[in-house]
Amino acid sequence: MLLKYTLALISILILFTTSLFVGVGELNISGYLNGSHEQELIMLASRLPRSFAVVLTGSALAIVGVIMQKVAHNKFVEPTTAGTMDSAALGILVASILMPQSSLMAKMLVATGFSLVGSWVFLRILKHLPITNPLLVPLVGIMLGGVIGSVAGFIAYEADLIQYLSIWISGDFSGILRGRYEMLWLTFGLSIGAYLIADQLTIIGMGKNISLNLGLNYRAITSLGLIIVSMVTAIIVATVGMIPFIGLIIPNLVNRFVGDDLRQALPIIAYVGGCLTLLCDIAGRLIIFPYEVPVSTIVGVTGSLAFIFLLLKRDTNV
Amino acid sequence: MFKSDRNTLISLGLLSITFIILFLTYNVGGSWSFALAFRGKKLVVLVLIAIAIATSTILFHTATQNRIITPSIMGFDALFIFIQTVLLFFMGAIQFISFEGIAKFLVEMGVMVSVFLAMFYWLFLRGNRSVYLLALTGIILGIFFRSLVNFIFRILDPNSFAVLQSELFSSFNAVETNLIFIAAPMIIACLFFVYLLRYKLEIIALGKNTAVALGVNYRATVFAMLAIIAILVAVSTALVGPITFFGLLVSHLAYQITKHQNHLNLIIISSLIAICTLVGGQFIFEKLLNMQATLSIVIECIGGITFLLILMRAHKK
Amino acid sequence: MIEIKNLSKSLGNKQVLKDIAFNLPKGGISSIIGPNGAGKSTLLCLMARLLSLDSGSVAFDGLDIAKTRDDTLAKKISILTQSNAISSRLSVEQLVMFGRFPHHRGRPRLADEEFVTIMLELMELTDIRFDFIDELSGGQQQRAFIAMILAQDTDYILLDEPLNNLDMKHARNIMKTLKDVADNMNKTIILVIHDINFAAHYSDYFIGLKQGEIIVRGDVDTVLTQSQIKLIYDIDVSINIINNKKHIFYYS
Q1: Inter-chain CB pairs, A–C, below 8 Å
Q2: Which residues of chain C does A215 touch, with a Cβ-Cβ cutoff of 8 Å?
Q3: Element (H, E) at A141
Q4: Distance between CA B95 and CA C101 in Å, rounded?
Q5: φ and ψ at A268, to 5 degrees?
């Protein structure tokens, strides 16, 4: 057990350190240790914030994914397959148009409201779908996201904000600098919040009847879960942009090995989410060095492949 | 055969002609010959796309025995862009500069048809998969191809992102009019083959067992249909870019209003609906409302809602 | 004691239950019997507050379910509904431990763990306690769920078709266990059950439901008679007494 923890700690430290020293600006360990001022600036203003941002985003997205899977009772649901991400992007767009002078925090709150409404609409639609066909759920969610996305596209086009919208749509860590990412630490707090209600979320995942039987306020826990999901999504879309599939792949990968009891699984999900996103981001920085491939593209390619694998692997019982 | 739908056909035809005339002549400011030539080309492209998408969707519904998934929902237009990109990637690598125009297009078509058939075989003919699984797989495949195209473009040229944008997003304003002379004959040839196949299509629609029992070479016919679909999808994607829900929208409108649902009727009616939507929509948005390039977004939005409704209604039955 | 007063329920346009009223004393096993669509499951769900009442009231030991907090009720009554097709990947032990949730609220103590161990033993699940429930057979899943409900350690236990998916051996063992739990731990168990001979063997009290109304209730001798069964199920049966127990033959 101790060995596992040590290995886990060492591997994320290696990844994190790698992330610190990969990039266009000259930064090497010896130079940094020699106390070059320029090197210190790159480290503190760019590399460190970026690496933190990647880990925070990856783990928060993975956690949010598993919360949605519990709330929707479907393991193919996550913010991009439930319209939540698109709703958040629409919210930021609307906030930017209606109150362009407001702070990022205010815009993010509007986005939270939008993604909350989006997820709520999604859950309402789910009530009309048969539980016997679990694939219908992500299908409907992706469509809903598409419709919301096209509304956002329409508004953005008319308001001449397509450029901004595409920044939010395509998740990318290359713009992360000190002073521009700190809000992501909020997702850390929200993840802790999710951990505090881990048992309740697991019970919610067992269905309404069992939840009621165990004396849970089903609606309150569902709402709490959705609020966490919406806030995290809004923060990530506002600071990094949309990143698909992390919330779907990581929980489905982790539960193969450790199951769905969130009290146990949640830290592991967060850990794996952080690590894999770091890996993707480092790969994105290395593949066409000194240029970058945005992380959303890397995750889009690998994540969609993994998703298809998940789908077709179980096609015998669909 | 057309009798029961004569009124529908006549009114849709008249509506199409009205939109076409309006599109060509409304508010021509300067030189008429220039305006007509310019708008004429664009009109031809719109009509070609309309016919290609409507026909390929109806054929696809028949070949797969369902009315929920369409070639573009299955990610096949993204597949075509992916093929284009990969070819560009390799041709660029071996400096095959002379490889242009018709030859390039034909190679793209050839690869598209083969890959399409292989994918179709992989997805549809192996195992009995539910339509929802296929639709979901297709949508994710679409995302996969798009991400991959994105990726390749980044590697090809990390600085210019604009080329990619125009490739991946459909816009009826920036249609590729220079492809008309290749695209038009191909679509006409496809329609001719569809016409030849018209009786067999009715039998294919009854399902594999019935078709085999009635002595139709099921496999050969379906493969012929798929080749036609692949070419139509490729041509329309090359002309305007991917439009996910347009086929679904026009085909379902056609299913709603067509009384005698043989394929000839369905294809003609859905094509006319598609022409009305594209030409009329473009006229309204571009000329009347003076909104640029929003038609595709509006179509995607309405199409997406239609798809949601179809999914939800399908299970209620 | 359970007190039910003029309870009615409509689902959609259909009135499923009409003016149900009865009292059940504490202890023993009661079986709700009746044909398909009689409203048995609905009655059980209403009693366990899984559905809301249209009218009337249900109270357990004076606790009105409409006025009592859910977490308080979770320590008083437990219910297992029929379909529990859950997609979660939990181990059997984890699932059963969730039955203790109303007591430990997320912080299991040693006593909770001991309780779970006993329940696993009781339901013959000890060997598979670390297996994931989504990989078990239907019968094993059913036993795991019953173990969870028993781990909840409530005075009143409501089970809808607990013998679903179970083979002869496990069905009998579970009925024996339930009887044992009812008699020795002073629990009140209410079942919806289709196998009338199991009911005849193990039940102390019967409620016969038909078309949303109680048409007969009482002990074995009152309810399980040819005439009453004819009234409830609309079929002719013969009743034999073997080893002091009634056996109802309805096969031919």
Answers
A1: 80
A2: 69-75, 101-102
A3: helix A136-158
A4: 69
A5: -70, -40
- The Cα of A264 is separated from the nearest Cα of chain C by a number of Å equal to 10
Q: How far is CA A167 from its chain centroid?
A: 16
More confident residue, C100 or B173: C100
Mean pLDDT of C109-138: 92
Mean pLDDT, residues C88-95: 91
Residue ranges of domains in chain B: 3-316
Answer whether A292 touches B (CB < 8 Å).
yes
Chains B and C touch (3+ CB pairs under 8 A): no
Q: How many CB atoms lie within 10 A of CB C178?
A: 21
| Residue of chain A minimizing CA distance to C50 | A209
Dist CA A166 CA A163 (whole Å): 5
Residues in C touching A251 (Cβ below 8 Å): none
Task: Using pLDDT thresholds of 50, 70 and 90, give the confidence band for residue C79.
Answer: very high
Residue of C81, C87, C91 to mutate for A, most A C-beta atoms under 10 A? C87
- pLDDT computed for residue A158 by the predictor: 81
Domain boundaries, chain A: 2-317
Residue B152 has pLDDT above 90, yes or no: no
Partner B contacted by A93 (CB < 8 A)? no
A2-317: CATH class: mainly alpha
> Has domain B3-316 been given CATH number 1.10.3470.10?
yes
**pLDDT value at residue A223:** 94
User: Which residues of C, range 114-153, sit inside 8 Å of A by Cβ?
Assistant: 132, 149, 152
Q: Say which of B133, B300, B305 has its CB closest to residue A318.
A: B133
What pLDDT digit, counting tens, does each position of C215-242 carry?
A: 999 998 888 989 999 999 999 998 988 8
| The residue count for chain A | 318
The answer to whether the CB of A297 falls within 8 A of the CB of A284 is: yes
**Most distant CA atoms of chain A, gap in Å:** 64
Contacts of A198 in chain C (CB under 8 A): 106
pLDDT for the residue B64: 86
Q: Which residues in chain A have their CB less than 8 angstroms from residue C87's CB? A: 73-75, 134, 205
User: In angstroms, rounded to a whole number, what is the distance separating the alpha carbons of residues B315 and A77?
Assistant: 20
Q: What is the pTM of this model?
A: 0.87
Domains with residue ranges and CATH for chain C: 1-76+156-174+187-252 (3.40.50.300), 84-153 (no CATH)
